Amino acid sequence: MDLIFIEGFSGQTVIGIHDSELHHPQPLLIDVHAGVPRARACDTDRIGDTIDYGMVRERLVRLMAEHRLQLLEAFAEAIADILIDEFGASWVRVKVVKPRKFDDLQAVGVQIERHAPTHRASKLVHGATVLNFLASGMVPAKH
């Protein structure tokens, strides 16, 4: 598996559950590792055959500006979903950190790992089968 990564992305966003966090942006640090099975770019030398980390960075900037999430866990999950759904990663590790959240520690945060669903292709095939049955006037049995 080939890994494309961004480490130390920093930005400001409104996130948290305490009243003091809900009105002013605070800093976040994000690390993203996205796995793809042997990127075609190794052979083609074309950015279109891999995950473009510049585009991922732009997407992170947009997420920081647009999200309405409160928990770091949900924010990390949103990043994982973006990498899998929009960029085609088969595996991701996302770390989201609030630096210096408390005076007596360096950082707090979460780290998650997710895999792309392996049933994605089988769902598409099943969906096509259902459409064929419906078009022929037959309704498939539920499994």
Automatic annotation (TrEMBL):
Keyword Lyase: yes
UniProt domain Dihydroneopterin aldolase/epimerase: residue ranges: 4-114
Reaction equation(s) it catalyzes: 7,8-dihydroneopterin = 6-hydroxymethyl-7,8-dihydropterin + glycolaldehyde
InterPro entries: Dihydroneopterin_aldolase (IPR006156), FolB_dom (IPR006157), GTP-CH-I_C/QueF (IPR043133)
Name of the featured protein: dihydroneopterin aldolase
Single biological process term from Gene Ontology: folic acid biosynthetic process
MF (Gene Ontology): dihydroneopterin aldolase activity
Pathway: Cofactor biosynthesis; tetrahydrofolate biosynthesis; 2-amino-4-hydroxy-6-hydroxymethyl-7,8-dihydropteridine diphosphate from 7,8-dihydroneopterin triphosphate: step 3/4
Family recorded in the similarity comment: Belongs to the DHNA family.
EC number(s) from the headed UniProt entry: 4.1.2.25
Gene Ontology cellular component list: cytoplasm
Keywords: Folate biosynthesis, Lyase
Coiled-coil segments on the chain, per record: none
